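Entry:
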Amino acid sequence: MNKKYIMPLALAIILLTLINGPITFAVDTNDTVTVNINISAVGTIVVSPNVINWTLLQPGSNGASEYIIIKNTGSVNVSGIYMTTDTITVESTNPLPTADVTAYSAAGLIFVKNSTDSAHSHAGRLEWNLSSILTGEELNINENTNAFAHGWYRNSTGNEYLWKVENGTDGVCNNTGTIFQISSIPENDTTLNRDITVGASTCTTVTPGTTWGTFTCSTGPLVGYCIATANTCDKIYLYKYDMSSQFPNCDNSGSLITDNLIPGSEDAISIYASVPNGIPYGDTTSGTLTIVASY
């Protein structure tokens, strides 16, 4: 064979062998996908449970404490959490002259406490004007007063404290010159106390408002509360954690929960029902506690 064909033939045989045999290639089996997600700024809280019942409570007793969980289900921090009640709306007329339990708002019988409070406080309680002057009552009404209210501040302890409101400017009880007083000495089963001039609490001058005026007292049974007096001179409203715009400024009002709740976190408050003496039997009108947060 001609030598000049030997090398090409050998090369051809090698190439055919490679083609007919297994061939392995280096392949890149990894790759990446970049993802981006944007979260909307949403402020949302959820409270649970949303219904709480107390049954067969006797006058002068408290129901068992129940917890309400407040959870931040949104995407931003929430703070300044406060509570309002519908007591004023539901209990729109004076229930005292009736024996109708539905004239009373359940929300007005609720006490509330956050995780740092040492004691529970009224969530939002109305106390109404008595229809007549009590036997042995001494109110010391100013001779220039033309509208006033008087009544008992009552709670489940059996102690009742006499209070009075006298009108201010324009004959209403939410304006400059309005007077609020409450006795520091209770009346109960063993002690009669109907003289408001003895042991009267020290309370501020009124902060005027559109519908309500507000007071605070440095002594007596309502220390730490805001006392709102209605322009109609027929009722007072006791609260601590209501920061809604329906009331004028009150130094004792504040947030129910002061810490920020970051997304996904929660806090808890404790509530219980408290029934004073002298409430008719049956079902009160259901009340609503509204928890409000800002972000």
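The helical segments are 6-20, 87-90.
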